[in-house]
Amino acid sequence: MVLAKIHSGSFRVLLIFKCKIMKNLYCGIDISKDFLDYAFCWDVDKKILNTSKVENSIKGIKELIKVLAKEADGAALWVCFEHTGNYGLLLAHLLEVHNVKFSMVPSLDIIKSSGLTRGKSDPVDARRIALYIATNAYKLTPTVLPSAEILKIKNLLSIRNHYVKTRTQFKNALKSLQLAGKNCDLKMEIRTYEKEILRFDGLIKKIESQILGIIKSNELVLKNYNKICQIIGVGPLTAASFIVVTNNFTAFENPRKFSCYSGIAPFEYSSGTSVKGRTKTSHYRNKEMKSMLFHAANTAINNDMQLRTYYNRKLAEGKHKMTVINAVACKIIYRVFAVVKRDEPFVKFSI
User: Fold this and answer.
1) What is the pLDDT of residue 279?
2) What is the Cα–Cα distance from 67 to 322, expressed in whole angstroms?
């Protein structure tokens, strides 16, 4: 409270101004399969208030939400936790339902920002996350969960990847058995492997059909999906992955940031006059997305005259093959974002 006294002749005016400093309460949560360890921190002094834990269940999370409301006592509240996949999905869902602002951040961000640390435990990690959000809140944005359709597509894509890897293992083992079968009788075992491969073929086709059905059920997703699939080199699965990773093109502001996330954007590596490394992409990337983009780039080089001409020209200039493929993948990303953000169809140019 600030008091200001003003004397004017026989009049004295008392002006009272009430100033209330708005404080922000931050909560860091360390997620494990069975428990949620949490710690509180005010933005003013960044002093950890307390650390406790609840069960990672509906009952435990609702209890945590009550504790959050009590600790905040009307102050602005912001919760932060690592992006741990399905282990943190229930927490994120219930926080969103109860209108509690939260941010899911990559664990690497928290590790890199913590500096030199010694020791590790769940309560310690919760305190570190609380300090992280209190220090870096100015550059973070609240997380918005994807729709139920996009979450289901994401999980179906994960299941499909697992099926594909398992089918590949059976195919490789089958080749080995067929070679061994020339020296001994392995017909029954070979037939068993062949049946398993056919079974996984059916499972993969079923998953792909489910994904397409979900996409068709959502008008906004279907609109972007159809536009992406028109781009040469981008197939149905790559288009679905674009929609999942970008949360239907709401999670990334521009194609440059998505290129960084996918490990496509090159960065300079130099320091002073002694360190002059070659420009290269970062190893912090979404490996599956980069692999898909490279497949898309190879397909586009074979079927798109414009990109094939670009590819051949760069090779003639002495560029490394993989560097040029990386550049083509980057062009595909820019094409995808262009047709979505500008709401325009892809136009194939002939040379």
Assistant:
1) 74
2) 53
